[in-house]
Design goal:
Number of helices: 13
CATH architecture of the largest domain: 3-Layer(aba) Sandwich
Distance between the termini: 53 Å
Order of helices and strands: EHHEHEHEHEHEHEEHHHEHEEEHH
Bound molecules: pyridoxal-5'-phosphate
CATH superfamily of the largest domain: Type I PLP-dependent aspartate aminotransferase-like (Major domain)
Structural class: alpha/beta
Number of domains: 2
Helix content: 25-40%
CATH topology of the largest domain: Aspartate Aminotransferase, domain 2
CATH class of the largest domain: Alpha Beta
Radius of gyration: 20 Å
Largest sheet: 7 strands, mixed
Strand content: 15-25%
Shape: globular
Number of strands: 12
Length: about 350
């Protein structure tokens, strides 16, 4: 007889590994295509030599470096085993009853419904607008006395769209201060909104203790395989996060690589300029071929193909490019190197493909 586990976990789908397509180009996980910078590679090798020693559980050096970079104090910064671990920890510090509600847009980051269920709380999902943007007015209206946590993924994964500063401020002001609002800025470094409308969560959070910002080293900083992200917020929220943190889960190698990457950030952020141009080139080519593609402020684009999504993903894989279909909503395509993007474009703009998918 198998031991009993929580029956409510049955509603969480078991992990199903993606089909293997040997030699295919992978534009499915929003990774960067470059390996770590030489300075980061050196820090990684040096830290690995001390693998017999536990890492600093408080990540003091990394938190100090982040505090310095962001213009906050170390007490305002927590780190996690990827920002996805911080998402789960944020549910843990806010929800303690199954009737507690976690509010987020849908479709948005696929981890939100999972971490909500793992935390035994109730997910409340508010549809994106027809333009695939967060419907912040509807989200504010969906807040109840049971709402404990709100995730705003800005820019949004997988639709790529961002909400601007004025809209975001209006939302933050409309939500009661007892509700913790998470601004998940995993793609912050790829945003190119006008300066006066730039929604920088760290700035907006300075005067709002119920706002916490998540950023990550996995995307623009290119360290997805090492698992390190961070939260910036009020010291009380940070202290609570550190209480539920799985001990030593941000390992020594990850901490060293993050510090080195932060020091070399100008080189890393320069790469985002090239990527943004490439992203816009891909979007323009798809628009010209007749696809609907919402404007992207990330390192991917969104094709709202509805019921055709799964079949489109399968056909793209057969053509040698792995993309990410999401149910009956759409397909997310990461921006890779120009030759990888060209391979995807030659598939997607092929007249036979366009005819098959009624583009
Ligand atoms: C990729 C991503 C993250 C975090 O990734 P980690 O690798 O866990 O840091 C968080 N939020 C969103 C919306 C993402 O797309």
């Amino acid at each position: 007889m198998t031991a009993s586990t929580r029956p409510d976990l049955d509603s969480i789908p078991a992990y199903v590994p993606g089909r293997n397509h040997p030699g295919a180009v992978k534009l499915a996980s929003n990774e960067t295509t470059f390996g770590p910078l030489p300075t980061a590679a050196k820090a990684i090798a040096e830290a690995a030599e001390q693998a017999n020693r536990y890492p600093d559980n408080q990540a003091l050096e990394l938190r100090a470096a982040l505090a310095d970079f962001l213009g906050v104090t170390q007490e305002n910064v927590a780190v996690g085993c990827g920002s996805v671990a911080l998402c789960q920890e944020l549910v843990q510090i806010t929800c303690d009853a199954s009737t507690d509600e976690v509010l987020f847009a849908w479709r948005s980051f696929e981890a939100y419904p999972i971490v909500t269920k793992v935390g035994n709380a109730t997910a409340v999902q508010v549809p994106l607008t027809a333009a695939h943007v967060h419907d912040l007015d509807a989200m504010a209206a969906a807040v109840t006395e049971r709402t404990k946590l709100i995730f705003v993924c800005n820019p949004n994964n997988p639709s790529g769209t961002a909400v601007g500063k004025a809209e975001l401020i209006r939302f933050l002001d409309a939500v009661p201060e007892r509700v913790l609002i998470v601004l998940d800025e995993a793609y912050f470094e790829y945003m190119r909104l006008a300066e006066e409308n730039y929604p920088d969560g760290v700035e907006l959070g300075r005067t709002r203790p119920n706002v916490v910002v998540l950023r990550t080293f996995s995307k623009a900083y290119g360290l997805a395989g090492l698992r390190v992200g961070y939260a910036v917020g009020d010291p009380a929220v940070i202290t609570a996060l550190m209480k539920v943190h799985i001990p030593f889960s941000v390992n020594r190698v990850a901490q060293a690589a993050a510090i080195a990457s932060l020091e070399s950030r100008h080189e890393l952020l320069d790469r985002t300029h090239t990527l943004v141009l490439e992203r816009d080139r891909v979007r323009d080519a798809l628009l010209a071929a007749g696809y609907a593609v919402p404007p992207s402020e990330t390192n991917f684009i969104w094709l709202p193909l509805g019921e055709r999504s799964a079949e489109f993903g399968e056909a793209s894989a057969e053509a040698g490019v792995l993309v990410r279909p999401y149910g009956a909503d759409g397909v997310r395509v990461t921006t890779g190197d120009p030759h990888e993007n060209d391979l995807f474009l030659s598939f997607a703009t092929d007249p036979a493909v366009r005819e098959r998918f009624s583009i």
